[in-house]
Amino acid sequence: MTETTNSPAAADALLVHAHVDGELDPANALALERRIAAEPALAAERAKVDALRRALREKLPRETLPPGLRRRVEAAVGLHRAQMKPSWRALAASVALALIVGSASTWLALHPSPDDRLAGEIVDGHMRSLMAAQPTDVASSDRHTVKPWFAGRVPQAPRVIDLTQDGFPLIGGRIDVIGGTPVPTLVYRHRQHLISLSALPGAGAPAPRAVKGYNLVGWSADGVAYWAVSDLGAGDLEKFARLFRLAPTDP
């Protein structure tokens, strides 16, 4: 029996496509990630979609006008060739422009900027931590415990600030792999929301943005780019970033 788009399997496939495209809200994205981890069919569908996106990025051909397009357009609109001559150039130009714009849009969609790719990886790391049994590798509110824990695990330990009195208590830290490189990430809490703060040596200052339903803010200091990601409102996350930046340097 042929599968329709109303079947459960087809609906799940559409969800996977939407998730890969970053179109799901955080709650549904997390629920689907759990299902992908538990259901081989969904994991296979995601692998197929990822493979397709890679193939399109690597092998997407340049769009060209098919040879018989002019005759098909003339026949479709019911006009003779002689009648089409005055307006054919304009029509051909419009079609060519549409193809060029469509190809450019596809290229941009499949070739995000390095900054966008980095932001996506940071959000993915935050989402994985939310699905894990614990969001940290070392759980402690003491910055003198958390900072030394990074020694030997990453080239440079991050700046660790205690913001408990400001309503953003430190709860620990972990190692994320971003761009193939181990990166230190601090974890803070604000009410029931977690904030992941990753420190990327040598990276530029990121622009504020929203990715997959999460807010990101960032800044650069002493050759390190700090990226904070959370489902907090943008205003609260900006407040956290400001408090961290203005806090006294570690003794």
Features:
251 residues, alpha+beta, Phosphorylase Kinase, domain 1, 3 domains, seven-stranded antiparallel beta sheet, 8 helices, disordered N terminus
What shape does the CA trace take? elongated
Overall structural class, as computed from helix and strand content, comes to alpha+beta
Q: Could you please say which CATH topology of the largest domain applies here?
A: Phosphorylase Kinase, domain 1
CATH superfamily of the largest domain: MucB/RseB, C-terminal domain
Q: pLDDT under 50 segments (min length 5)?
A: 1-5, 107-111
In round numbers, the mean pLDDT is 78
Order of helices and strands: HHHHHHEHEEEEEEH
Number of helices: 8
Q: State the CATH architecture of the largest domain.
A: 2-Layer Sandwich
How many beta-strand runs? Answer: 7
**What's the CATH first level of the largest domain?**
Alpha Beta
Number of domains as seen in the coordinates: 3
Q: C-alpha Rg, in Å? A: 25 Å
Report the end-to-end length measured between terminal Cα atoms: 70 Å
| Major β-sheet strand ordering | 1-2-3-4-7-6-5
What is the helix fraction of residues, given as a range?
40-55%
The profile of the biggest β sheet is:
7 strands, antiparallel
